[in-house]
Amino acid sequence: MALGIEQVEQARLRLRNIAKPTPLIRSATLDRMLAAEIWIKPENLQKTGSFKIRGAYNRIAALRPEEAARGVIAASAGNHGQALAWAATRAGVRATIVMPRTATIAKVDATRSYGQEVVLAGADYLEARHAAEELRARSGALFVDAYDDPFVIAGQGTIGLEILEECTPDIVLAPVGGGGLIAGVELALAARAPGAQLIGVEAAGSPQLSASLRLGKPATISNPVDTIADGLATGALGKLPFEILKSRFSRVVTVDDFEIGEAVLLMLERMKLLAEGAGAAALAGALKLKAELAGKRVVILVTGGNIDINLLDRIIAHGLAKAGRTMRLALDIRDRPGELAKLLTLVGATGANVRTIEHSRMRRDIPIGWSRVTLELETRSPEHIASVLRELREHGYQVAIDGG
After folding, report:
1. Quick one: which H or E segment has residue 355?
2. Same domain? 312 vs 342
3. Do residues 248 and 341 both lie within one domain?
4. Which of 262, 288, 323 is a domain's end point?
5. pLDDT tens digits, residue range 295-327?
6. CB burial class (10 A; 0-12, 13-18, 19+) of residue 17?
7. pLDDT per residue over 273-290, tens digit each?
8. DSSP string, 301-351
């Protein structure tokens, strides 16, 4: 099928009363941090917790009767699977969702809760996709691609239409996995706001967009895909998204897991928005491009909030470390009354707060009569960390960072 703004408009009609329009919201914190007019598109508040409901429902609604009778099958790290399961159940269509064995428990349980079959196969998205294609060949079900499907892309493009109803941006930042979202948004912007620049944000552990732009064709990552942004860890860019993007789109920024974690923490702490790794990637990209965004009207897509609590705990820990909000240090003290109290009093005087403390005198790498103390501290900033270390060293302590 041809794919253009007409298909995006048709998708919007199908999604009426299904996908709720998520209003753009402002953040004074981000305005100050980036010296720009920042708008957030909070798709983490969407049905099923991500933007994926748009493309999945549009695909299900467009099924021919004979396709619906065969059922559908999909591979997903989580969000596409949840959205397709919800949409299929609502339409009375049988669906099978193949997810990698490494998918987060929260996403697996949520997908099952929508009443469809979930199969766990493969160590990552690409292996799960291969398993899904094998199942499709045996069952005759219709494979619904998470990003390389015209109906899915058109559905995701409705985000672009909603943005343009509220503002005319100078720049839009969107996360990129397989490319379905950014291709759909590009269709809307090219037709309705051709002056707006679209910037893709990819995870360093799955950089298929930048690889595709370099090669001039859709690329598959040969190295193991490894990122906390599991929604972006497709390892490949779709052929159809690439065809849409290649003529006009040229800008991508790559962010690592520490930068993503910092963005998750920033939204949670300052904006009260819970985003998963992929959902926070665009904000991480904006923080990285601060100098370029100054003075511009910028829309940042927060694409999902389906995050496993255990993963959230690790992301927060990474984000706190990146922001200089925690530090871990080790030092040796004499093993006698009052020495530990003296150390803790000094730490407290610097304004740092002790989160955990380990005290060991049974080590072969310290002299008899001494103890190794390892502290995990809550701090305010990298500058505060430097002042804590300076104070300890001025009082004669030999400090090793990170327990080293």
Report:
1. strand 353-360
2. no
3. no
4. 323
5. 999 999 999 999 888 888 887 887 788 778 899
6. exposed
7. 999 999 999 999 999 999
8. EE-B----HHHHHHHHHHHHHHTTSEEEEEEEEESSTTHHHHHHHHHHHTT
